[in-house]
Design a protein that fits this description.
heterodimer; A: alpha/beta; Rossmann fold; seven-stranded mixed β-sheet; five-stranded parallel β-sheet; 11 helices; globular; B: 3 domains; two-stranded antiparallel sheet; 5% strand
Chain lengths: 419, 532
């Protein structure tokens, strides 16, 4: 009898506690704006995405310290979809319908973005996507703050074909087996054809997610490269597979002067887990590098380092900044500007106000949100890996470039070039 | 332009006894343009004085800077040196490092190689000659020939001969061309093959590009020799990577061969025991960095016993708290250990954070050894193959030659009888599981050297481990070895032919068919598992 009574007591207690909890959230909801953060904090993509969650939290803290948005503080709601694509959709739904967030910053892989798209369309949510991707997409509910192929992949290959890039004549297109590498390589193949490169001089290879044994592929690249023409590798390997890939590359003695590798998904953060000395000279193409010297970037780096230390991020003394982090930072600030312009967090009003927003980014350029295509105008930089895991910029565009989400190198896109 | 500059540099050398490169050369080097810098590098190399080589070295090491005023300095942590005089100067307020791009780096390596090809140190000479073998330019030919005239070492001579032959193949003298074509047959470089193939081409009018038939025969002969060597290198590479993958699979599976194979526990947390070993290695590395920075390269050796004991303790705790209540109830153990694996993953995430941790190869495990032309074997993989053999020997000795091993075998074959004759069966269970877990820890220690160390790493190996143990025949070490190596070799041959994604599917299809035809695996089953 006694146990039952105490059980009932516990039940009422917890029920009333829960009620109190929900009351307090209602009370909060009045003077805060909820912001969703949807990044994998575990699984194969955690290596890349954890830093984006940190950047988002830091930016929100910064905005709150400066008075918030329209006098209201931002309240981050962090969820972990665990590198699991269906879980991304589930978590997105939870953020939009349960937590009622005004906007979501998140996703890295294209497959995760494709998984959440139907949810954002159905519930008319707003997603800011901070990573370079393959294009072939334009959604009303999404703002793309990373690069489209013409803002990263195409200029990188053009650089490889230039004199300073080594005048490459043959190309290995190497990637993880999913939508981003496959589409990017389709665009690159068409682009290479247009430059007179024959199919015999293009090798395409894919590995599964999380692949860690690159012996065979490196041997194949070596063989392909030794067939008489200068060869370069274009890598769209994603996530933590890059670590074993670069380890193998270094140990197998494939030097950058012989076969340079240009990567589209490897930045400062990914190189933290690798001994970069054997990789000196390999390349990456991005719209931002931590090594860029200007006051905005110096302040950005300083702010992130201080944030990491204050929030006890593991290995806080060695944290780095990278391109998708910059894109996250720019995205959140632009959203703030748009909300203030619209005077409301209402999704349709904010979407309308986003067009033409501009922001002075850590890259040193003022980036503008395109009025029609939801993509940023971004500069393109090619960097070489330095022994300390940073990049030195070896080539860059003078001006930010307008995105072409629908690549002109893919058939059927001719009519969409105005976008 | 470039030639006149070279001439200028040479003239300046001739003028002064202690050759100091001209200011014009330095001005070119400070310019932010690859073409000017290449001119300057070539000028410095052609001048060849000690001072110039020092500047080139500084450029290669990344210690050459341009000050805000446009002057060059060589900077160390404490000192600034004027490259023109070699004297110390005041440390500049601000300066930019001169970064190389791949084009500059190639030119620089060639230039430095040419300057080092007569070094008294054999290793330096060999490296320089190998560099020249790959990218020597025409104006280096006199230098290479004079080096050949004095060189005694066979390996260096061979590399130099190839370097000279690469240049000579374009000579106007047909005798030289023939000799070069013959010499190039010593190479194992496919690009040389394409160079030779150029000699055999026919022009549009049906005549050979190469008029001299002797040269053509020599070229054809050399191409055949290179082809043979390349084919051999190909097979050797595939075999090695197959054995290497096999050894990794074996290390991942050996612990399971005891916990599942001998004891019959379907241990879904096996992958997490590998993870425990890998994290133990990471922690040891951190301790060495903090307290023994001078002996950092030895951390892997210290990590081996630590990984073993940490994983063994975790395994024994698992056995005492959960698994011992479930012996003989296969499905329940499967679920319980699956739960344990989730707990361990979360624990790792809480303790070390969700991101992968950096575990670096010690210096003696980095790089590779060129066993013969075109076959470079990475040291970390060689060490892992040896380590797998060592662990295998350890397990075999433990199971066959120790009292504990005998007890384990006795308990698994007939628990009741073993108990009757005084074997402490419960304690033996714990110890056996602990040893299985410890061996998984050793596997994790090895895996940390080739793959990522993160909370979810174990899940990537659980399927592979079961594949090896089930295919080999449960409870058989010989089976695990055969299956591990067999799967490794098979995967690598398939990958070479079909790519990684298809290879993975094909291997799984093969296993499904094989298990249907021969459910007991390669070797017959003994142990508690089958009696039940």
């Amino acid at each position: 009898m006694k146990t039952r009574r105490s059980f009932i007591k516990a039940l009422t207690l917890s029920a009333s506690l829960a009620a109190m909890g929900s009351v307090s959230t209602f009370a909060q909801a009045a003077d805060t704006i909820k912001v969703g953060i949807l990044h994998s904090l575990s699984g194969t993509m955690a290596i890349s995405e954890t830093a984006l969650k940190n950047t988002a939290l830091m930016t929100i803290e910064e905005i709150n310290a400066h008075g918030g948005v329209m006098g209201k503080k931002l309240e981050p709601v962090v969820v972990d979809p665990a590198s699991n694509w269906p879980l991304f959709a589930e978590k997105a739904r939870q953020l939009l319908s349960q937590d009622k967030v005004a906007v979501v910053f998140g996703c890295w892989t294209s497959v995760s973005r494709k998984s959440v798209l139907p949810v954002f369309k159905e519930l008319n949510g707003l997603l800011f996507y901070p990573v370079q991707y393959e294009g072939e997409e334009l959604e009303k509910n999404v703002f793309y703050t990373g690069a489209a192929p013409n803002q990263q992949a195409i200029p990188a290959v053009e650089y490889l074909m230039s004199k300073d890039g080594g005048s490459a004549k043959r190309f290995v297109l190497l990637g993880t087996d999913y939508v981003y590498p496959r589409t990017t390589n389709k665009i690159l193949r068409a682009f290479l054809h247009s430059k007179g490169v024959a199919d015999a001089d293009i090798m395409e290879e894919y590995t599964p997610f999380g692949h860690s044994d690159y012996q065979t592929i490196i041997a194949k690249i070596k063989k392909f490269a030794s067939e008489g023409k200068k060869t370069a590798v274009v890598s769209t390997i994603n996530g933590d597979s890059n670590v074993p890939f670069y380890k193998e590359l270094g140990n197998a003695g494939l030097k950058a002067t012989e076969v340079p590798v240009v990567a589209f998904s490897v930045g400062e953060e990914e190189l933290r887990g690798v001994d970069a000395k054997p990789l000196v000279g390999h390349l990456a193409a991005w719209n931002y590098f931590m090594s860029i010297k200007n006051p905005t970037n110096a302040a950005f780096i300083k702010e992130y380092k201080a944030w990491a230390k204050a929030n006890k991020v593991p290995n806080a003394d060695t944290v780095v900044t990278n391109d998708p982090m910059e894109a996250t930072y720019v995205g959140i600030h632009m959203w703030k500007q748009a909300v203030e312009k619209a005077g409301t967090t209402d999704v349709d009003a904010v979407i309308k106000a986003m067009g033409g927003q501009s922001f002075k980014a850590p890259s040193g350029f003022t980036l503008t949100m395109d009025k029609t295509n939801h993509h940023l105008h971004k500069p393109v930089l090619i960097g070489e890996i330095r022994p300390d895991g940073q990049f030195s910029v070896v080539w860059k565009t003078k001006e930010p470039i307008r995105a072409q989400p629908w690549s002109p190198y893919i058939e059927g896109n001719e009519s969409k070039q105005g976008l | 332009m470039m030639r006149s500059l070279l001439a200028l540099a040479l003239a300046l050398c001739a003028l002064c006894a202690h050759a100091v490169p001209s200011d014009a050369v330095f001005a070119k080097l400070a310019e932010d343009d690859s073409d000017s810098r290449i001119e300057a590098i070539n000028a410095l190399a052609a001048d060849g004085s000690e001072q110039s080589i020092k500047v080139l070295d500084a450029l290669a090491d990344g210690t050459l800077y341009v000050t805000a005023e446009g002057a060059l300095v060589i900077l160390t942590d404490t000192e600034a040196i004027d490259p023109r005089t070699g004297q110390s100067v005041t440390y500049p307020e601000s300066s930019d490092q001169i970064y190389l791009n791949n084009r500059l780096r190639g030119v620089l390596q060639g230039a430095l190689a040419a300057s080092r090809v007569k070094s008294p140190d054999r290793e330096v000479r060999l490296a320089a000659a190998n560099e020249l073998r790959e990218n020597a330019s025409e104006d280096m030919l006199p230098l290479i020939e004079s080096a050949l005239a004095t060189e005694k070492d066979k390996a260096v001579r061979n590399a130099l001969r190839l370097a000279a032959a690469r240049i000579d193949i374009a000579s106007t003298d047909s005798g030289r061309r023939r000799k070069a074509a013959e010499n190039l047959g010593e190479s194992a470089d496919a690009s040389v093959k394409f160079m030779l193939a150029g000699l055999l081409k026919k022009a549009d009018d049906g005549h050979f590009v190469e008029a001299d038939e002797a040269v053509r025969t020599a070229a054809q002969d050399s191409i055949d020799r290179i082809d043979r060597r390349l084919a051999m290198a190909d097979v050797a590479n595939t075999l090695f990577s197959g054995i290497s993958l096999g050894s990794i699979l074996l290390l991942a599976a050996l612990g399971l061969a005891i916990t599942y194979g001998v004891m019959g526990v379907i241990n879904m947390a096996h992958g997490e025991l590998l993870m425990v070993g890998a994290y133990a290695t990471y922690v040891v590395q951190g301790l060495f960095r903090a307290y023994l920075p001078d002996h950092q390269d030895l951390y892997v050796l210290a990590a081996v016993p630590v990984a073993f004991f940490t994983a063994a303790v975790v395994g024994m705790v698992m056995e005492r708290t959960v698994i011992r209540w479930l012996y003989g109830r296969t499905l329940e153990t499967l679920l319980a250990t699956w739960g344990l694996s989730l707990i361990l993953i979360q624990a790792a995430r809480v303790i070390f954070g969700p991101q992968n941790q950096e575990v670096s190869n010690p210096a003696w495990m980095s790089g590779g050894v060129e066993v013969f032309a075109n076959v470079i074997l990475p040291w970390n993989r060689i060490v892992i193959i040896a380590f797998a053999a060592f662990v295998l020997l350890l397990v075999w000795l433990m199971m066959q030659k120790t009292r504990l091993g005998m007890f384990v075998r006795a308990v698994t074959q007939n628990r009741a009888m073993a108990g009757c004759v005084g074997v402490p069966t419960a304690r033996i269970d714990t110890l056996a599981f602990g040893i299985g877990a410890g061996i998984a820890g050793l596997g994790g220690c090895a895996l940390s050297q080739v793959a990522n160390v993160g909370p979810a790493m174990g899940q990537g190996y659980i399927v592979d481990s079961f594949m090896v143990v089930v295919l080999g025949g449960v409870g058989q070490l010989a089976g695990a070895v055969t299956a591990g190596l067999g799967l490794g070799l098979m995967t690598k041959f398939l990958e070479g032919w079909s790519g990684a994604v298809v290879a993975k599917i094909l291997v799984l299809v093969f296993i499904i068919i094989f298990i249907q035809k021969r459910p007991q695996g390669l070797f017959a089953v003994k142990g508690r598992f089958v009696e039940d």
